[in-house]
Amino acid sequence: MSLAGRFGFVIGALLIVAAAWAFNDRVFWIRWFSQPPGDTVLLNWQWYQPVDVIKDEPSMPLPIASDAERTISDDALAEAQAYAEEFDSLAFLVARNGVLELEYYGPGQDRTTIIDSQSMHKGLLGVVATVALDQGFIPSVDTPVANYIPAWAEDERSAITVGQLLEMASGLAQVEFGTSAFAPGQRLFFGDDLDGPVNGIPLALEPGTAFDFNHVNSQALHAVLTGTTGMSYAAFVREYLWDSIGAGFAQVRLDHEDGTARIFCCVQTRPMDWMRLGVMLANGGRMDDTQVISKEWVTRLMTGTALNPNFGFHVWLGSPYSGSRLVSEPQNRRAPVSAPFLADDVMYVEGRGGQRLYVVPSTGLVAYRAGRIDFAWDDAKIMNILLAGIQTSEATTGDPDND
To answer: What is the pLDDT of residue 385?
Structure first.
């Protein structure tokens, strides 16, 4: 065989191997090439299959304050809305004591609009895990995760606890993320086997020694929740949280049919449903006449740790103020915080580039924003506008202890 013939044979063989490899990973590649570009991902939520529907009903709206009933000044509400519009927000809603004082939707959007949450799902996951702890499904925060992920029982990962996953202190290695389809982290977003990467992730640090924001911590909680409850993630959320707060449509993505839910990212629901979740948390775990979560566990959800006082159970805390918040101690990564919050108990659920749910229990204030992915979105600025606008003739916060 000539040199050219040999070269052609080798190239042909390589192409056959590559085609076979791509075919075996075809689900990933179909999803990779189907994903919506840029900011369109927030509204283009129907491209992904399969999904598991948590609930399929209209959202139950919160009551609306009349002009005379508003407890936040008109100037503050107008300034906050203008800031939201500046960032091309799809939705910006503000409530106090369970009553809407501002409800803004961007052009073409309304109450029926379904929006992808990005990493706001992590905050919801923190609430769901808190429900499971409160209900006794998870025995305690000290429960070993290896009880539900047997592969971890064989090495040092056996020391990782549920609390360390929730507080981002497990010591698990980071998965490399990047824009390339060949970055290992992309398999977490688009692959058809989520359990494999979670089972195989190595330990990088001694558990409980450092704060390190890590998608795998969140995804590993899936095995804990399904293992302790004997229910699918969607079914548990529906029965023990979503129905209790009167929320409407929501869905999660599965890695494959009847498979594992992607719980580190991307639940799709409506703005009003996030608001109902926030009202319940601001009200000490109570929604109307139902105590969804005990006040003690809501407090634990929103309590920081020695490793990161600005992080609770998958939720961020505004205080204490230091000019920044720790994202990863091993990587020496911090995110800027422009100013101290005007309330000491600001809690927020964070999604990529300014997707947010804010809860301030001391004032009964809840706010939600979704829109253009822009990391210049300023949490302290928007919340301080609203907090400064709370008028002195204010109603009770709705704290169940005051009812």
So the answer is: 98
